[in-house]
Structures are given as structure tokens and as C-alpha cells.
Amino acid sequence: MDNLLAQVTGTKRVVLYSPQDALHLYLSGDKSEFVRAKRYECVLEPGDLLFIPALWFHNTLALQFGVGVNIFWRHLPADSYDKKDPYGNKDPVAATRALQALERALHTLDELPAEYRDFYGRRMIQRIHAVGKNFQ
Predict the structure, then answer these.
(1) N or C, fewer C-beta in 10 Å, the chain?
(2) CA distances from 88 to 16, 51, 53, 79, 80 (A)
(3) How far apart are CA 1 and CA 86, in angstroms?
(4) Closest by alpha carbon to 8, among 57, 53, 71?
(5) If you average pLDDT over residues 16-22, what whole number do you get?
(6) CA separation (Å) from 73 to 2, 31, 51, 67, 70?
(7) What is the rounded CA–CA span in Å between residue 57 and residue 52?
């Protein structure tokens, strides 16, 4: 979800990465490590506000004891979100289903000999690239 971070007291370092750099980040659960992604960094002081758009990877580190307040809001239809995820940390429901379908498809390709897996895997990649071009 979109997020407005308000620093009330103390200071906090915030590092952000654009969703366009997702392929340059290693994802492990809900944590990420950057590789070649463009890093945006700032230090929030008391009274500062930072808008963090949905899909932006971010990490915060308190530089001194403080209080920060996050305000999250949804911009997709309510049924797009996992009802057990009040902070929007999980993927939208449709994206979760799509990723699960991809995992099942890849697992199914494992039933084929290597040269067939390669051929059909490349066809899947072409299809995904074609879909991605529709969004650019």
C-alpha cells in the first residue's frame, strides 16, 4: 500500500529502491539486498514526512530513539488485498495467484527432457516479455 511516514521524534535513515529496479534486488521473504539498483536515501528528522509509494522497496534504521507514525492507504479495490494483511506487505491477491500458477507451470516443465524444458521455458519468457511491453 501507499505509505506516509511521519517522523515525530528522533531521527531515522530511510533507503528506497524503485520498483523498476526489482530485477536488481535479491528478495528473501520480506527482506531485500541491493546489487545494482539505484539507491535513494534520506534522513528523517522530527516533523519530516516521507511518501513511500506502493511497490517501492524500503528499509529504515533508527539513528536515535524516536517515534515514527506510518499511515497506509489502499488505492486498489478492497478485494485486491489479502484480508489478513493490514499493512499491505503481501502481494495483491491476483499477483499471488499468478506467481503460484507460474511456479506450478515451471514444476510441470520439470517433467520434460532438458531440451524441451529449454524450448518451452523460452516460449514462456517470450510471452512474459510481450505482456510486459503492454505496460511500458
Answers:
(1) C
(2) 17, 15, 12, 12, 10
(3) 9
(4) 71
(5) 88
(6) 6, 22, 11, 20, 10
(7) 9
Provide the β-strand partners of residue 68. 7
From 37, 44, 6, select the one nearest 22 (Cα to Cα).
Answer: 37
pLDDT digits (tens, 9 = 90+) for 48-101: 999 999 889 899 999 999 999 998 888 888 888 888 887 777 889 999 999 999
Tell me the CB-side half-sphere exposure of residue 46, using CA atoms within 13 A. Answer: 7
Sign, CA dihedral 71-72-75-77, equals: negative
Locate 44 and state its grid cell. Answer: 528523517
pTM: 0.69
Residue carrying C-alpha cell 521455458: 121
Q: What is the pLDDT of residues 30-54, one digit of tens each?
A: 555 566 789 999 999 999 999 999 8
